[in-house]
Design a protein that fits this description.
Length: 242
Amino acid sequence: MTIDLRNPVRGSRLTKTLKGTVLVAAVVAAGGALVSTADAAKARSQPCRQPGSTLVRSTKLVRLYDRPSEDAIVHYACSRTSNRRSEFGQTTISGTDPDHVYSATPVRFAGHYGANSSTDCISPKFFSDRRPSCETFVYSIDLRTGKTKYSARGSAVATSQEFQTFVNRVVLQTSGSVAWSADTATTHGSEVVQRNTEISRITATGLRLLASGDGLDSGSLALVGRALSWSRAGVRETTTLR
């Protein structure tokens, strides 16, 4: 008996098999279409997003992403109004052995601005005493243009192998002005010979060291409205950040 595959006998096993095959193919095709449609919709809603990125935070004005590279995680933000991409440093992935070791503090947002600090250390493997040489900067970026608004070293003292800066907190005003606290350490070989804490700000009037010395709590820096404050020996000191 010869069966025409284009017109199989109704109710035959072949007919049922063909129907099942068509149904499975239809489901697979529909699933692929749904995935494709979802990817296309995501690309349209987040045009600034780079492939492989993970959404870290989202506000009405900006989205913050992390994107893995060869040996670091790149931190960047996308403005919802302009779709501009602004980079906020990167963090070296643990277990890698790059020539430069990077780190960055959490990104702060205020209005159309973002700010944080980033550190770039030349790997200690290049130095006989096995100590890195690092530079730390604090900066704010206009998310609408992707351009830096303000930028300054993390400490009033230039960093070197003998002087390290560790930015603790960064606060940001809606004008793009930024303030931060930093703990510093002066070393001789492997020994820390001096420690200090600094509170600084940078605005349209320039860079200013607001406080320095013993008793400062670098983790106490806070901004409420225009009031910028911190603690020294348990007592609050206040100025303004416009």
